[in-house]
Amino acid sequence: CTGVQCLIKQWYQRRVRATKCLGPVYDGSTATGHSTQAQACAAATDTACPAATCASCDTDDCNTIPTVVDYKCKEYEVKADATAITVKDTEVTCKKLPDTHGQCKTPSDTAVAADVASFSGQAVCMACADNDAKCATVSSAGRLAAVVLPVIALLYTLI
Fold first, then answer.
1. How far is CA 12 from CA 5, 7, 15, 16, 64, in A?
2. pTM of the model as a whole
3. pLDDT-based confidence at residue 14 (cuts at 50, 70, 90)
């Protein structure tokens, strides 16, 4: 057999020789943190691998599932008999690539109740579109700093 070794995940993981490997790519808008593309083998001429959802490669074991880490984003809601979007007490567990900042969507002042789906569930786990005036992107690292910095300031005043 010639070619590269591709990882294939069935009920167990195995390696298969092929000319090209296919695998999932990072997708922060999903609960798993990666696209639904299965680890697979393909012929060199096979082009059914859109870059947004599929990684195509030609080295041994190159089609691994992306490594992701958890971070949290606040979720938003519209309460009964209300028209404004408000922050919920719960947080959504999001996925990001290691050594990167997670991005969370927050509603801007122009967001209305009909926009609440953009700020709940896995939808909060991504950056806003560049032209979206109803949305602001915040870093998950910034949320941590908002808690830690006041504590440091308090400890400094006590010294």
1. 16, 10, 10, 13, 14
2. 0.72
3. low
